[in-house]
Prior knowledge:
By secondary structure, the protein is α/β, with parallel strands linked by helices.
Amino acid sequence: xxxxxxxALGGGEPLVGGPLEGWEKRAVxxxxxSGSTGEPKTVLxxxxxxxxxxxxTHERLGGPGTWLLALPTNxxxxxxxxxxxxxxxxxxxELDLSGGFRAMGFAQAARPVLAEPGxxxxxxxxxxxxxxxxxxxxGLEALxxxxxxxxxxxxxxxxxxxxxxxxxxxxxTTYGMSETSGxxxxxxxxxxxxxxxxxxxxEISGPVLALGYRGEQEPFGEWFRTGDLGRLRDGRLExxxxxxxxxxxGGEKVPPVLVERALSTVEGVLEACVVGVRxxxxxxxxxxxxxTRGAQPSLDELKAAVTGSVGRAATPKLVRFVSELPLRGxxxxxxxxxxxxxx
Length: 343
């Protein structure tokens, strides 16, 4: 896809999959959304937004470099690895994902990238990071040699983030979406010329914004309303999850991400997904699917961690231990599937 994308950015045939009308004609790329919060849409991006994002990323990371593509290119995170390579004038390495993500495969794909002069980067989702960190083998050793490892696509469990950094991985957490040309907030701080505001729901403005959704009459305005909850503290953004995911139990509003963070602090918890399950008495009850490694914590330990950190209303009434969480898209947990497992 690299050559086709390079041509599209240079004014060649756009990668949009069909004719464009009106304001859509400025688009060079169409990216489908994951559909995790409703019907999938096609996000239309122009060359200016894509290259602005790539240039601002390199500026934040310390300069252009050689990238390892470890994500599929039908999602914006994978596409942006290619755009950044085009902007940097470098050729990216590519990890073969046809057989799934494997630590040894990552190490082998990283070798020629790391042999190139200059700086070296890659982008992963939290599930990939977890497999490399837990393995503590050649995959982790290769990962430690990158100058920056962008992590996005889903919230990174705090314990995983802490462990990766303690092991010498230069992790940079990212927040963004197809509508913002990928990650536009790094470690809580917006990229150059990106502006943030929130009235509980996060809104984003700046040169990285997409044109709009294909088939809609009007393009995006100056500000894009994300549908994600968040708050700004001293200029840094804290993302609290999707507004649609908030659990209302007994009249109390519970953001699942806060419960997930509390659960992840318990020894033995690798990751967790928290959802609301319909209940005749409470309206919804808090339910948690928990992935463990090593000794399995007790239910009392899990509930105490949540009660102490988030409050009694957020304490899970239902807990299920699972071997892994179902995924939808590049590293996104399928919350609908998790909720269905409790019914």
